Amino acid sequence: MNTHLNTALDLAARGVLVLPLRAGKLPVPNCRACRDNVCGGRPNMKTPGPCTCPRPCHAWAAATTDRVVLTSRPWRAAWADAAAVAWHPGGSGLTVVDLDHATAVTWARATLPATRTVPTTRGEHWIYRGAMPSSNRVRDGVDIKSAMSYARWLGPGTGTMTALPDTVRALIVKKPSPVRPVTVPVPAGGGECRHRTPAYLERGIAMAEERITGARSAVHHTVYRTFLAVLAAHGRCGCLTDTHVDRLFTAAQAKGESPRHCADAWANATTALGM
User: Fold this and answer.
1) Mind giving me the DSSP string for the chain?
2) How far apart are CA 58 and CA 64, in angstroms?
3) Which of 4, 21, 217, 272 is a plausible cystine mate for 86, CB 3.0–4.6 Å?
4) What is the per-residue pLDDT across 168-222, written as a single tens digit (0 to 9) for each?
5) pLDDT band for position 159 (50/70/90)?
6) Which tens digits make up the pLDDT trace of 232-262?
7) % pLDDT > 70, the chain
8) Over the chain, what is the mean pLDDT?
9) CA-CA distance, 169 to 189, in Å (whole number)?
10) What angle do CA 153, 159, 160 make, to 5 degrees?
């Protein structure tokens, strides 16, 4: 049996979501059904589309622990061409702090709580228990790989894995822009914030549900963009409730999105908006 497949099966048995990785640290090429990214994925194939084909052509979203899938006929062909094994940290409930060079490693040792470490070609992977939104270049030589991301499997590492600390979560929090005085015109409703107007909010949520439900392609991308629009309009004034969010998640799941993908899309939208 293929060495990479053996490694993947061992990891999958321990609950780690895995997928084959080709040379250049990229997922295996798109299958015929998804050629030229007709499914809505980005050209570099690091961002998946909504296709449900059985081939591993959708980056982190294709990662699985299912032995039947991993050893299926389409996947065996992919493993035969694989250069390494990749895994989905966020889906496995973990976060990787990817340190690209010696200076970044020195910074981590002085700043972050000790945890399990894995040597890489140029630096180290620090692995923590707990998932969070992913983000590249949070500082020089430091990437966060967790939700909606994948990392190359380089071995189990050494040391005791510890809980994801706030110091790591804080790395993706954008600093607020300098406050500039502005003149805000009084709206034509007696000065009431339109975001807190029930009719305005209800109309916005209903339109978001319709946009998701009406998607005929690129569902995953549509869900993310819709979440982004809702948060941009209503996310900063406290008018969104769990009921509103549940409605959006329900609409997305009715189109085939998993609860995990909904949570990842929502978390990435809040991060993109600096919330």
Assistant:
1) --HHHHHHHHHHHTT--EEEEETTTEEPPP-GGGGGGTTS--TTSSS--S---SSS-SGGGG-B--HHHHTSHHHHHHHHH-SEEEE-TGGGTEEEEEE-SHHHHHHHHHHSPP-EEEE-SSSEEEEEES--B-EEEEETTEEEEBBB--EE-----BS--EEPPHHHHGGGPPPPPPP---PPPPPTTTT--GGG-HHHHHHHHHHHHHHHHT--S-HHHHHHHHHHHHHHHHTTTT---HHHHHHHHHHHHHTT--HHHHHHHHHHHHHHTT-
2) 11
3) 21
4) 999 987 654 444 443 333 334 444 456 656 777 888 888 899 989 888 777 888 8
5) very high
6) 877 777 677 778 888 998 888 888 888 777 8
7) 78
8) 80
9) 40
10) 100
By the 8 A CB rule, do 84 and 28 touch?
no
